[in-house]
């Protein structure tokens, strides 16, 4: 049985692991020892280590045939030192890694002024957060070319699910942009992203990037309105771009400066993607039904 190493054990990793357990033995790199019991209960073998401390990663050498990399970069700088440390470890192992799937972000494209773009678009990151992702992608693709590892990159947009909806933002009355100033945003349901990770693991092409997005073309404010209306919450107030610049934190406002419509043809043609939630409205409706059913059983 082949082995998979999962790096970055957050929500998407937790959704992906059950889809692979029947075919693979799975190891998970954990920073906190208190998570060991939780992952063991899922049938996963945990390994305690820290991507920010190279000596703790020695046990990863030669451990896996395939790697799923979900870990974010650190919160500062324009390079991803965590990816660099993992590559160094994987390069020293006796067993060569055959495949690596990395979950990146559509933020690497920067602002496209609402234009429709695909994976051939020029990368133009506007924030250090996105620059770190570009750095990680480039390091991993170079590693793939130099080592013969099939590296596939999934560029994910805003991830949502029943437990990942902007309720707090709506309840706090955080503003959205007026229709004239609003930006196109892109989405993927967390369950669909987990399925795409598995598809890339099986069918991803070497050094290939894939836009892991759904079929929706929706502006950011319309997304918040959709959630608010379905869950009987007040709609977010609308403000001009200039007012948003003055009142919001730079981090939050950065998402309002980038407008793009992401083409997802490649995941369908090359990965055979069949999205369970092809449009945001499908995922929101499913989340509403899930919440309603939960309330009925209480």
Please give a handful of descriptors for the protein shown:
18% strand; 298 residues; globular; alpha/beta; Rossmann fold; 15 strands
Topology:
Layout: E1 3-7, H1 11-20, E2 25-30, H2 36-41, E3 45-48, E4 66-69, H3 81-92, E5 99-105, E6 116-117, H4 128-147, E7 150-156, E8 158-160, H5 167-171, E9 176-177, E10 184-185, E11 187-189, H6 190-203, E12 208-211, E13 218-219, H7 220-230, E14 238-239, H8 241-247, H9 250-254, E15 261-262, H10 265-269, H11 280-297
Helix pairs in contact: 1-6, 3-4, 7-11
In short:
This protein is α/β, with parallel strands linked by helices and 298 residues long.
Explain what the structure shows.
Helices cover 38% and strands 18% of the residues. The protein has 298 residues and is α/β, with parallel strands linked by helices. It has a domain at 3-158 and 188-215 and 262-276: Rossmann fold, CATH 3.40.50.720. The strands form five sheets. It has a seven-stranded parallel beta sheet with strand order 3-2-1-4-5-7-12, sandwiched between helices. The protein has a two-stranded parallel ribbon with strand order 6-15. Helix 1 (11-20) crosses helix 6 (190-203), helix 3 packs parallel to helix 4 (128-147) and helix 7 runs parallel beside helix 11. It starts with a strand and ends with a helix.
């Amino acid at each position: 049985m082949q082995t998979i190493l999962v790096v970055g054990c957050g929500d998407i990793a937790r959704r992906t692991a059950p889809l692979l357990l029947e075919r693979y033995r799975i190891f998970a790199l954990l920073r906190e020892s208190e998570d060991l019991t939780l992952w063991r209960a899922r049938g996963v073998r945990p390994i305690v280590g820290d991507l920010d401390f190279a000596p703790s990663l020695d046990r990863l050498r030669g451990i896996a045939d395939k790697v799923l990399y979900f870990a974010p970069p650190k919160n500062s700088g324009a390079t991803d030192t965590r990816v660099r440390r993992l590559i160094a470890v994987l390069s020293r192992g006796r067993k060569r890694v055959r495949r690596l799937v990395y979950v990146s972000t559509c933020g690497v494209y920067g602002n496209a002024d609402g234009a429709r773009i695909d994976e051939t678009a020029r990368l133009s990151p506007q924030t250090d957060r996105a620059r770190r992702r570009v750095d990680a992608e480039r390091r991993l693709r170079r590693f793939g070319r130099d080592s013969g590892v099939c590296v596939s990159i999934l560029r994910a947009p805003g991830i949502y699910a029943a437990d990942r909806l902007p309720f707090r933002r709506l309840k706090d009355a955080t503003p959205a942009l007026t229709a004239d100033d609003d930006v196109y945003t892109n989405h993927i349901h967390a369950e669909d992203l987990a399925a795409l990770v598995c598809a890339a693991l099986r069918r991803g092409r070497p050094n290939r990037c894939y836009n892991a997005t759904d079929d929706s073309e929706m502006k950011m404010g319309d997304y918040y309105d959709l959630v608010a209306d379905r869950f009987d919450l007040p709609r977010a107030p609308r403000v001009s771009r200039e007012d948003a610049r003055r009142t919001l934190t730079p981090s939050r406002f950065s998402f309002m400066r980038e407008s793009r419509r992401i083409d997802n043809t490649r995941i369908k043609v090359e990965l055979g993607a069949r999205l369970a939630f092809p449009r945001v409205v499908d995922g929101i409706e499913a989340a509403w039904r899930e919440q309603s059913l939960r309330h009925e059983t209480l």
